[in-house]
Amino acid sequence: MSNPQVRVALILLGIVFLKSNGNHREVLATRTAGRVSECPRDEKEWWIASKRLNCSDDAISPVNRYHCLPAENLTTLLEFCYNRTRPQVVNGLCMVFIEKKNIVNHYNCSKFNEGCPNKSYYSNEIYNFPACLEIDPTQRCYKAELSCQQSTRFLTDVLNTTMSTLVNDTSRTMKKNVRIFYLVIILSVIILVGVIGAYVVWKIHHTMYINRIINYGNSRATGCCSRSETVDFEY
């Protein structure tokens, strides 16, 4: 009942492709890989992750094993079940995952300062070589590589210098702003005191003027002022 073409297509999807090229070998991987912040660091964590993805935990069968590897461009870590025979990796090589092709590829780690595998291992046992799982996604390199460490150190120095400059500039700006703030406060107090002083002087002068008018009115009412008497009401 099944279409022969469909059966052929399903068979082709299950074929494992091997491509030999020097120290590199690519193997077809299966299922959609998921991004993780870090890979399991030991056998127990690896087993727990395998259970979570429902990968095979058969100690005898080498197929459908859990894998967690850096992406080919070293920007992230990817985990997946590889339902074909786990490849054996020779010493001096780590492994990466080419997500677009769903294949596992070897990475020459001879430039590592330390941590490059010194013996052969199975791909699902890469947790025994943590340096193969430690990447700098920003620099897209393995942290164990000298060039990666130099780039990271350079960026760290630049960042520290920039932060130091910003802190110093901010400190100077704050000090300047504080001086301006105090100057504004002092000027405001001076102006306020001047205004209050001027008002007090005006108030005293005005009160004296009102009192003189009242006194003059009283003297007129009692007839105490002669015709020749003059009163200055200048204000």
Describe the structure in your own words:
There is one protein chain. The strands form four sheets. A four-stranded antiparallel sheet has the order 1-2-8-7, with no helix packed on it. Strands 3-5-4 form a three-stranded antiparallel sheet, covered by helices on one side. A two-stranded antiparallel ribbon has the order 6-9. The chain has helices at 4-13, 43-52, 146-222, and strands at residues 19-21, 24-28, 34-36, 65-70, 77-82, 88-89, 93-98, 103-108, 121-122, 135-136, 141-142. The termini are far apart. The chain has 235 residues and is α+β, with helices and mostly antiparallel strands. It is built from three helices and eleven strands, in the order αβββαββββββββα. The protein is 41% helix and 18% strand. It has a domain at 4-144.
Question: Would you spell out the secondary-structure blueprint of this structure?
Answer:
Elements: H1 4-13, E1 19-21, E2 24-28, E3 34-36, H2 43-52, E4 65-70, E5 77-82, E6 88-89, E7 93-98, E8 103-108, E9 121-122, E10 135-136, E11 141-142, H3 146-222
